[in-house]
Every structure is written in C-alpha cells, then in structure tokens.
Amino acid sequence: MDNYYRPLLIDVDPYSGRILATRSWGETLTTWLYELHASLLVGRYASAESGLLAFKVITFLGLLLMLSALSGLYLWWPRGWKAAAFKIKTTAGRARFKYDLHRVIGLYACTMLFILAFTGFSFGHRHWVTSAVSGFSSVNSEPFQDPPHLKSHPTPSGRRISLQEAAAISARQFPDTILRWLATPAGAAGYYSIERLGPGEATPRRPRHRVWIGQYSGAILQAETPRELSAGEVFLDYLWPLHNGQIFGLPGRILFCLTGFAPLQARKAHPRA
Fold this sequence. Notes:
By secondary structure, the protein is α+β, with helices and mostly antiparallel strands. It has 3 domains: about 1-45, no CATH class; about 60-140 and about 230-273, no CATH class; about 145-230, Nuclear Transport Factor 2, Chain: A (Roll), CATH 3.10.450. It has helices spanning about 30-40, 40-45, 50-75, 95-125, 125-135, 165-175, 230-235, 240-245, 250-260, and strands at about 10, 20-25, 180-185, 190-195, 210-215, 220-225. The strands form 2 sheets. It has a 4-stranded antiparallel sheet, with helices on one face. It starts with 7 loop residues before the first strand and ends in a 14-residue tail after the last helix.
C-alpha cells in the first residue's frame, strides 16, 4: 500500500552514535494520533490520494469553525460596554453562576478556537493564506518548504558528500546552533536541507536557521536565518507553534488541548428571573 507520509524515525545515542530504535511513521501512538487528527486515518487504510483529500477536507472545516466562532462572538457581545459581562458573579444564585461561567469560558475559548481553526485551515490551504499575507508583506520563504530553483550538479568524480560532512558544513555556516533537521537528497539533482536551532526561533522542532548544501560539491546553495525573514514570513512561521500551543510552552499546549473540548458546551444555562 502506498503512503502519503511515512518517513523512517531513528533514535541515536548522541554520545556513542549507537542506534537505539527504528520505526516508521504511524507505528507509534503519537504518530498514530497525528494521522487520526489530520486525516482520520484515511491515508492509512485507503490510498495516499484519499488521505490527502481527507486532509484537505478536514482543514477546510476550520473555515467553518472560524465562522462559527465569529458568529458566536457577535451574538455574545453585550450591547454597549459592560465590564460585568467579562466576569463571573460568584455571589448570585447557582443558575446565574452557571450562566456566567458558560458565557465567560465561551468568550475566552472563542479566541483560542479561532486561532486553532485558522492555523489548521492554513495547513491544508496554504496558497490562500500565503496569497492573502502577500498582499501586506513579501513572502519569498516558507517553513517546511525548500526553494524550488535549487539543484545539485554532479562533479567529475561523481562522489557524494556524507551526512556527517553535510552536518559539519552547516555547523560552520551557523556556529553556536544545534542540529534539528536533516533531509537527504531526493534524486540526482537533490541536495541536503538542514535546519539548525538558534536564538529567535518560533519553534525548536523546525527552526529557521536553514542551509541547503549540494550533495556532490558540498557547496552552500542557499542559507537563511530568522533575522532575514519579512513580517509576512514571520507570521507564517508562527502558525504551527500557534496551532499546537508550543509557542506558550507546556502550559500553552495543555490549555490549547483543553480548548478543543470547548465546543462540547452545547447546553446553555439560563439565569432564573
């Protein structure tokens, strides 16, 4: 069966270089949950094309959630400014307390739900979001994407540099950074794509100190740092850590996870007269 996304995951002891474990994407609970969240496991049990279609449909539903959040905010907003609308009145009766609790939690959850919906939508329909952002700021570089024009050119010897050599070249380009991501060349014209963690990063998992290295010559084809990004590129860079709450650390991830249960507040409590 073909797979839409199935990289090999390897754990390596950083001191001895010994391989501790190997497994493929989808064979662990965490990656299984990622597939469930992104495509309802359609790509696992059907074709890769079906998995991609499911991903597109699910992320598009984020647009509907955004509209629902905005309409709920409109219906909630008090006519005229009332500071009490943003507070929970604990001295009132039980029914009023439940009503205030529902209303205030809904308000703050609405903001986070909108962020979750928008960022989720952007992953499956990036071209729409990028086009909109390009109207305000230049976008020449995006996270998770390589420049389309880069190519490796074979040398007379035909020798390819090793992973270790590519990593060493990237370390010389960006000293005092930590290796976080290394993609091997795809085909004869492919190149090494390396990401290193440094200061000013939006997320430690996929940092933006990036360097692309020719697989034959070891020449640096292109390099970039977060300091070189435009305002629009920085905005796009923060969509992923915003979606999973990583930008706010572990408390943020827990809070965003709990926010996912906010729509379960289906029954609205009404205060008694």
